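Appendix B, record 7
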Amino acid sequence: MKYLSTLILITTLMLTSATFAQSKVAHIDFQKLVSEMPSVLAAQEEIQKLEKDYKTEIESSIKEYQTKLQNYSAEAENQTEVTNQARQQELAGMEQNIQQFRQTAAQDIQKKQADLLRPIIENARAKVQEVAKAKGFDYVIDASLGGALLMSEGTDLEPDVKKALGI
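Structure tokens (predicted):
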């Protein structure tokens, strides 16, 4: 009987100490948090305006290209071979310029988006860490689809695992 009560006491102590040794973990849907921030909405409006400006300019260039193509096609029979070749080269150049402008516009939009969103995301991440520390959490896991660890204050096992592996 004494052996049984000692075993129960030891088991209870082990479970209690294991409970206290566990890290506190929280989660947050970081993408949802960021998407609901007013500054993100303002940044998205600015990006949409830039996209619209580029789209208008590209459409204008395409209309100009199509107009010249129609004119050159209609006049091709009445022009010399040299003139027609020059016009074909001009059209090919215009087409290439439109493609390059599309690529440049896409890169500019992507850069603008990164420039606008980077400080917002960094601010949100800092606030998550601040709140998590205040609440006593060791880890905060991003609950977004494909999320990651946002904060790590708990024990890092990497040095011990490396030592065990002989690294």
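Remarks on this record: Confidence is low (pLDDT under 50) at residues 16-21. The first helix runs from residue 2 to 21.
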